[in-house]
Amino acid sequence: MSARERLAKAQAELARALGMGEPVPEGFDEERVGAAAEALGMKRRRLVQRTWPMLAAALGADFARSFETWARENPLLGVEPNPLADGRRFAGSLRTAGVFPAEAEEEWLHFELRWRLTDEGGVAARRGVVLKTGRVGRTKRRMLAVRLPGGRVLWWSLERGER
Amino acid sequence: MKPPAGVGLGWRRQLAHYLDEAEGVDFVEVLAEHLDPKGALPEPLKRLKERGVPVVLHGVSLGLGSAEPPERKRLDMLARLAERLGAVCVSEHLAFVRAGGVESGHLLPLPRTGEMWEVLAENVRQAEAALPVPLALENVASLFEWPGEGMTEARWLAGVLERTGVGVLLDVANLYANALNHGTDAEAVLEAVPRERLAYVHVAGGVKRGGLYHDTHAHGVPEGPRVLLEKLVERVGPVPALLEWDDHFPPPEVLGAELEAMRAAQARGLARWKGGGA
Q1: What is the spatial distance between Cα B243 and Cα B27, in angstroms, rounded to a whole number?
Q2: pLDDT (tens digit, 9 = 90+) per residue, A25-53?
Q3: Does A11 touch chain B (CB under 8 A)?
């Protein structure tokens, strides 16, 4: 094995222990590595919480546990940790599982109108006109949102007798 | 553009207004990852540039201590941003940030070994060849160390300097953290860096939590990092120093007081500097 290969193996073991909760590689101080992993996890969670405030608030006390469980299985992707993208991936997993909170629907729509996830784990701005519908707010009214070129978003109620 | 001098502040969007008005900021450092490589520079940053305030481009995601060589597209992005900003230098870290497809989102420490020296030196050569301005590398703080560290941090840093032509961004807050958490001999590290290799200094705040010192960049600066800055200036003469603040931003008067305290530490060190000709 070359110096680069030996180093790659050792660094990957450490990165997995820190980011994915895998066993701490032999010889490291487990308690210290655990403290570092905890600090990293907290930082990642706090950034998502700040970027997706409605989602975090809707999940309430469950947010921390739910995010951490998801995060251990879904380490950050190969570009700069992007909390907007990280939160969107988390939100997507909640939708797939059917447990996405209705109170955060507006935040989801806002993301979908403006951004799309890139393969590298970042976000890219959508261009042109984007149309989305969803149930928004406490009353869960069905709304149509249109994002115009330039970024302005218009909302219409799709329910009779309302606007 | 003139080189950094005096006291600087890390540019953040939340601090843009402060930096617009502040008189006592001699240079700034911009995080590469916060800029859109294709879009326009933020307006407040353009204004600082027009005022002739020296700008350093600071990267956190290159991972020059990775087992893999630095990625071409990351280097190209840094090079383009450095040119657009008119940056005096690019700074990065003596750290790795990803391995085996896992992104850590953090600056992880390097094993202090001869093999690491060789890999790092080759990575640094590739980075320097791609960048239009000098590169400086920063010592990092970590809550843990690699097993069986047979080499001190000072010796390891000296070896990095022997094997590369890279400059040093000396983070005295990271040194202070490592001194508290690992018993690192901080003064020996200061002495390992010759003046001509020293680009500038980082100062930041932190907090003690659960028996460990965390370098948070979100709390006030303890006396320790400033004492190290003072000792450094006493040994090598004037050194520019920059305050990093990333979260829980304080009111302007608190920021101003932190910058003044750094200036005072520099002045105390300079008064005892033997090379001053006094």
Answers
A1: 10
A2: 999 999 999 999 988 888 889 999 999 99
A3: yes
